[in-house]
Amino acid sequence: MDRQFSCVHFNCIKAKIFNGSMLKRLTLILAALAALAGGIMPVDAQTTAQPMPHIEVTHMMGRWYEVARLPNQIQHGCQAGASDWTPTGEGFSVVQSCHKGTPDGPLAEWKAKARIADPVSNAKFKMSFFGGLLSQEYWVLDQRSDEGWLILATHDGKYLWLMSQKPILPATIKTEAVSRIKQLGYDIGRLEFPLPLRG
Predict the structure, then answer these.
(1) Do the Cβ atoms of 63 and 163 come closer than 8 Å?
(2) Cα(109)–Cα(179) distance, rounded to whole angstroms?
């Protein structure tokens, strides 16, 4: 009888330890998901910017370098950011990367899948992370193929990125792109300008 009670008691303790460790892991995962979704950073104002009426989806392919962004928790301290868009049967495979601290710092990567959410405009993408545990809609607010840049934002207007097909935009074009962000209703005083890749 004592042996049976000890066994039951041990299983109860083991279950409590297991549940406690699982709860901690789940809390960490949820915190990471919230950070990626951008739910931690405060937002000064909402914008009413809308996606472009139409873009050529092939213009999304290839590597895009991060020129400017609105702050978000997951990219805190990121320099020399880039996104690689590779077409797949259902959209794109996207690998986002940056170097922590400096352009030569440790490399961090986030993998996502992107599918077109609006086949009429091709300017809305549903991005999924962590095997679909987190999804977010992104809009292309402007794209200047002739100058090699685009403005990408979350659908709620909270987060935004100025991306370029070259590591560094010429100063006059960069000024034009930032002015466009202001026209779209964003506070350009909040923009971060990460350091580009060296060399």
Answers:
(1) no
(2) 30
**C-alpha distance from residue 161 to each of 16, 59, 70, 193 (Å):** 44, 16, 7, 10
| C-alpha to C-alpha distance for 35 and 38, rounded to whole angstroms | 5
Helix %, strand %, coil % for the chain, to 5? 30, 35, 35
- Cα dihedral: 143, 196, 138, 61 (round 10): 60
Residues in Cβ contact with 138 at an 8 Å cutoff, skipping those fewer than 6 apart: 114, 124, 125, 127, 152, 153, 154, 155
Sort strands 91-100 and 107-116 into parallel, antiparallel or unpaired. Answer: antiparallel
CB 191 within 8 A of CB 70: yes
Write out the chain's pLDDT in tens, 199 residues. Answer: 444 433 433 334 334 433 444 444 443 444 444 444 443 333 444 568 999 999 999 999 999 999 999 999 989 999 999 999 999 988 999 999 999 999 999 999 999 999 999 999 999 999 999 888 889 999 999 999 999 999 999 999 999 999 999 999 999 999 999 999 999 999 999 999 999 987 5
Decide if 143 contacts 161 (C-beta within 8 A): no
Domain 57-190 is of which CATH architecture? Beta Barrel (2.40)
